[in-house]
UniProtKB/TrEMBL annotation:
Protein name: Cytochrome C Planctomycete-type domain-containing protein
Pfam families: PSCyt1 (PF07635)
InterPro entries to which the protein is assigned, alphabetical: Cyt_c-like_dom_sf (IPR036909), Cyt_c_Planctomycete-type (IPR011429)
Keyword Metal-binding applies: no
Origin species: Melioribacter roseus (strain DSM 23840 / JCM 17771 / VKM B-2668 / P3M-2)
TM ranges: 20-38
Single annotated GO MF: heme binding
Superkingdom of the organism of origin: Bacteria
Domain (Cytochrome C Planctomycete-type) ranges: 76-127
Length: 151
C-alpha cells in the first residue's frame, strides 16, 4: 500500500511538472504570436484608403510611399526584383530616377501621374488590382507638382 501511495505522489508531481511545461509552452507561443503581429507596421487596404491626405505639403514618406507599398511595389509588380515596366516604386530614389516617369514640378509630363490618372495606354494599377482612391491619385499629382520631394 505504501509503495502504491508513493508511486501515486511521484506520478502526480511528474504529471504536474508536465502540465506546467505544456501550459508555459502554449502561453509562450500565444505571447510570441501576439507580439509578432502587433509589431507589424503595415496597414491594410481599408485603413490606407480611409487615411486623410492633405491638399498640399504632401509628404513622400507619410502619404506617397505607403500607397506605393500597398498597391504598387509588391511581388510581381513595381518592386526591386520584378521591375514591371522597368520601374521600381520601393524608394524615393527608385521612383524619381527617371525624369520621364516623375518630372518634378510637372505632373502633366510625368508618366507616373498620367498612368495613375488612367491617361495612358496602360493605366495603373491594372484592372483586377487594388485601385487607387481619388484622394491618393490627387496626392501623387500634388506631390509631383510640389517638386517630388523626399520628405
Amino acid at each position: 500500500m505504501f509503495n502504491s501511495f508513493y508511486k501515486n505522489i511521484f506520478m502526480n508531481k511528474k504529471s504536474k511538472n508536465m502540465k506546467i511545461k505544456l501550459i508555459s509552452s502554449v502561453l509562450f507561443i500565444i505571447s510570441a504570436t501576439i507580439i509578432f503581429y502587433s509589431c507589424d507596421d503595415t496597414i491594410n487596404q481599408s485603413e490606407l484608403d480611409s487615411r486623410p491626405i492633405p491638399q498640399s505639403n504632401i509628404s513622400y514618406s507619410e502619404h506617397i510611399q505607403p500607397v506605393f507599398d500597398a498597391k504598387c511595389s509588391y511581388s510581381g509588380c513595381h518592386n526591386d526584383a520584378d521591375l514591371a515596366g522597368g520601374l521600381s516604386l520601393t524608394s524615393h530614389a527608385n521612383t524619381t530616377a527617371n525624369f520621364l516617369i516623375v518630372a518634378p514640378g510637372y505632373p502633366d509630363n510625368s508618366r507616373l501621374v498620367l498612368a495613375v490618372e488612367g491617361r495612358t495606354v496602360n493605366p495603373m494599377p491594372p484592372l483586377g488590382y487594388w485601385p487607387l482612391t481619388d484622394e491618393q491619385i490627387r496626392a501623387i499629382r500634388t506631390w509631383v507638382k510640389e517638386g517630388a520631394k523626399n520628405n
